[in-house]
UniProtKB/TrEMBL annotation:
<protein>
    <submittedName>
        <fullName>3-hydroxybutyryl-CoA dehydrogenase</fullName>
        <ecNumber>1.1.1.157</ecNumber>
    </submittedName>
</protein>
<dbReference type="GO" id="GO:0070403">
    <property type="term" value="F:NAD+ binding"/>
</dbReference>
<dbReference type="GO" id="GO:0008691">
    <property type="term" value="F:3-hydroxybutyryl-CoA dehydrogenase activity"/>
</dbReference>
<keyword id="KW-0560">Oxidoreductase</keyword>
<dbReference type="GO" id="GO:0006635">
    <property type="term" value="P:fatty acid beta-oxidation"/>
</dbReference>
<feature type="domain" description="3-hydroxyacyl-CoA dehydrogenase C-terminal">
    <location>
        <begin position="188"/>
        <end position="285"/>
    </location>
</feature>
<feature type="domain" description="3-hydroxyacyl-CoA dehydrogenase NAD binding">
    <location>
        <begin position="7"/>
        <end position="185"/>
    </location>
</feature>
C-alpha cells in the first residue's frame, strides 16, 4: 500500500476538485487534474494560480513559492493519464452509477498499490466500492467548501476498506495542513448528518411562513454566532450539490421524516436558481456581494 503520495490525480475540477488540487500541490505532490467538461481543468488551474497570486499580493507566500506550486499542476485528458498516480481522489457529480463507473475505469489503469478516494458528501463508500475488483483500496476523503479554508476532512472506511488506506489518508491530510477525523460509513457521515437540521428546519420555518430566509440567516449569524446562515450556506454549496445530498440521506435512512428534503429547494433546483456560482440563489450576487431580492 502506498503511503507516500507523490503523484496525486484529481478527477473533477469543480468547486471541490480545484480546492483539493490546491492543497495537494501545497503538500508537495505533483497534481494531475482530469475533467470531462471541455476547458474545466484549465479553468481550475487558472483559478488556483489566482489564489496563489492573491497570497503573494498579501505577502503570505513568495512569488517563487507560487511559481513552484504552479509547476506542480498538470492537466490530463483521460484516465490513462493517471496511471502513475499513488492516489486518485474523485470529486465528480454526486451519482452512485457515475462514481462506480469512474472507479471501474481507474482500476483498469492504475497500479495495484494506488489508493483511491471519494469526496462524496452522502453516498455510501461501501456501495461505491461494491463493484470494484479491490474494494479495500477505496476510502472516503470528504473535504468541505472552500477546501483551503475548511481545515477538517472526514476519512471514511467502507465495510472493506483496508485500515492502511485510512492511515495513509490521515497522514496525507496532515501534510495538507488539515485535521483528519475518522468517520463511520453512515449516511452523511458526521458533518452532513449532524448539520442536517440546520438547513431542513430553516426551510420548514420559511415554508410555514414564520420568517423569511434573510431574517433566519441574520439571527443565526449575528445572534447565535454561526459563520453563515443556513441559506447563505446553501447558496455557497449550491443546490445542485446540496439538494441531492438531502435526498440521499433521507432515502438511506428509509424515509425518516426528520431528514425529508424541502419542496422549496426542489423547485429552486428545477428552476436553475442554485446559488452563488450562477449569480442567484436565495440571494442575488452582484460583484460577489449578496443582495436580498426585492
Ligand atoms: P461541481 O459541479 O463544482 O464539479 C464537478 C466537476 O466534475 C465538474 O467540473 C464536472 O465537469 C466534473 N465531472 C463530472 N463527471 C465527471 C466524470 N465522470 N469524470 C471527470 N469529471 C467529471 O461539484 P462539486 O461541488 O465540486 O462537488 C463534487 C463532489 O464533491 C460531489 O460528490 C459532491 O457531493 C462533493 N462535495 C461537495 C461539496 C460542496 O460544498 N460543493 C462539499 C463536499 C463534498
Amino acid at each position: 500500500m502506498k503511503i507516500q503520495f507523490l503523484n496525486v490525480g484529481i478527477v473533477g475540477s469543480g468547486a471541490m476538485g480545484r480546492g483539493i488540487a490546491q492543497i495537494a500541490a501545497q503538500a508537495g505532490s505533483q497534481v494531475h487534474l482530469l475533467d470531462t467538461q471541455a476547458g474545466a481543468a484549465l479553468a481550475a488551474r487558472d483559478s488556483i494560480h489566482d489564489q496563489w497570486q492573491k497570497l503573494v499580493g498579501k505577502n503570505r507566500i513568495s512569488a517563487e513559492q507560487a511559481a513552484a506550486w504552479s509547476a506542480q499542476l498538470h492537466i490530463v485528458d483521460n484516465s490513462a493519464g493517471l496511471a502513475h498516480c499513488d492516489l486518485v481522489v474523485e470529486a465528480i457529480v454526486e451519482r452512485l452509477d457515475v462514481k462506480r463507473g469512474l472507479f471501474a475505469d481507474l482500476e483498469k489503469v492504475v497500479g495495484p498499490d494506488t489508493v483511491l478516494a471519494t469526496n462524496t458528501s452522502s453516498l455510501s463508500v461501501t456501495s461505491i466500492a461494491a463493484g470494484m475488483q479491490r474494494p479495500g483500496r477505496l476510502a472516503g476523503f470528504h473535504f468541505f467548501n472552500p477546501v483551503p479554508l475548511m481545515k477538517v476532512v472526514e476519512v471514511i472506511a467502507g465495510l472493506k476498506t483496508e485500515p492502511a488506506v485510512c492511515t495513509a489518508l490521515c497522514e496525507y491530510a496532515k501534510q495538507m495542513g488539515h485535521t483528519p477525523v475518522l468517520a463511520q460509513d453512515t449516511p452523511g457521515f458526521i458533518v452532513n448528518h449532524a448539520g442536517r437540521g440546520y438547513g431542513t428546519e430553516a426551510l420548514r420555518i420559511v415554508g410555514e411562513g414564520v420568517a423569511d430566509f434573510a431574517t433566519i440567516d441574520r439571527i443565526l449569524r449575528d445572534q447565535v454566532g454561526f459563520k453563515l446562515g443556513p441559506f447563505e450556506l446553501m447558496d455557497l454549496t449550491a443546490l445542485d450539490v446540496s439538494h441531492p445530498v438531502m435526498e440521499s440521506i433521507y432515502q438511506q435512512y428509509y424515509d425518516e421524516p426528520r431528514y425529508r428534503p424541502s419542496v422549496i429547494t426542489a423547485q429552486r433546483l428545477a428552476g436553475g436558481v442554485v446559488g452563488k456560482k450562477v449569480g442567484e440563489g436565495f440571494y442575488r450576487y452582484e460583484n460577489g456581494a449578496a443582495q436580498v431580492p426585492a
